[in-house]
Sequence to fold (504 residues):
Amino acid sequence: MTAPPDDVIALDTVSLRYRLAKHRIPSFKEYAVHWMRGALVYEELWALTDVSLRVGRGESVGVIGRNGAGKSTLLKVISRVLDPTRGRLALEGSVVPMLELGAGFDLELTGLENVYLNALLLGRSRAEVDAARDAIIEFTGLGDFIRAPIRNYSSGMLARLGFSVATAWVPDILVVDEVLGVGDAWFSQRSKARLRDIRAAGATLLLVSHSPEAILASCERCVWLDKGQVRRDGDAKTVLDEYLAFVNRS
Amino acid sequence: MRELFRYRDLIGALVARDLKVRYRRSAIGFLWTMLHPLMMMLVLSFVFSHLFRFDVVNYPVYALSGIVFWNFFSQAITASMNSLRGNAGLLTKLPVPKAVFPLATVLAGLVNLACAVVPLVAIMIFTNHPLSASLVLLPFGMLIAACFTLGVGLLLSPLAAFFTDTVEMVGILLSLLMYLTPVFYPLSIVPDYLRWIVVLNPVRWVLEVFRLPIHAGVVPTGLEMVVAAAIALAALGIGAAVFRATSHRIALYL
Fold:
């Protein structure tokens, strides 16, 4: 399946199954014992069932839903961290996932060394990082701390570093999981401005948040996930109102 | 493959980090890592020249070259198995090709093996062991060893992600395998009825291609080189195929 001309994300009846910790067989020994008893049954959890979704180039889509509705799993599938158990996923262009700021940071290394490590993990080459490093350092606003091991950083400083690296290049698709508003008020302003710039440059944004305000602020469209399925998909204001009414009722 | 090539700078950075961590712990970090094999060599030399005698010309060189090979092999495999779980935090958050981690682990081990040649040659000079021209084949032996080890690492590391006790189990199997491989004893002392096991042991073929140019000072025969290369490539092929087939499920289990 190829995405239609203007769709950069196309999910076609995507389902994802976790085999749950309760009955996941963590060791060989237990596996062998269960296998011999013929009792190899798995407790299955379908985090996503038959999710179909199309997102056009340059669109900004918010994803809302209660805990366990499958929001993070959906972002992981679109980020290609998890492969769908069933169904198909087509992507057009590069994806930068911001599922957790600083995923892959090494506490023993300095801020600058982590800038390199993190950018390389995102698929950048050393030459690209060399060219962008001064701008990245400037954006973090960490000053001389950039040469200190990050084990001495506060959580706000770590988030600033992670955000600065992840957004240093304009991706085709930016996937964000509840990481906005990190750091102090000053950095929060800068990161919002940076996201606006990225969207203005034509990137597609996918944003998971529990905060309707955050979604309304940057998305015109919203998808409401419930029990692993798309419950509503449409204009952000309408979907959020419906979602809030539903939450208040139950 | 193409994806791994795209991430070559990342692989380089991971190897550099691995080496830095290993050697930074102390100012004499490198000496520390060589101290263990050298101590082993001294103990084994004492045991086998005073307690149980067997006939090996310049036993210290025989033992040391066996030990550095074995340490590379067993440490790289154990580290490959731990590499996926150790990086679980980022493998569940970023779409990095997972083979990057076992690959970087084995490459770092290979750099260590190359470094171990320095004290090895020092011992050869110290014991008046002839430095034969066959030593130019050393890189070939190391390459075979690296391909073989990477293959085994790729085969076992997904298993270690799925089952937490894999590392312990492989640890036991590795120590058994060490006794089935002529690491510190010569093949000649193995009784006939057991010898076929040791002869057929694929690790032995890989070890011999590495050690013959060092200890015996000879070029391995064509047959020895071809068999060792075939074993290494078969291991790499199987390991890569298993890793490919299972890697999309790894993130679900971490």
In short: The longest helix of chain B spans residues 222-253. Chain B has a mean pLDDT of 91. The two ends of chain B are 23 Å apart (CA to CA). Chain B has eleven helices and no strands.
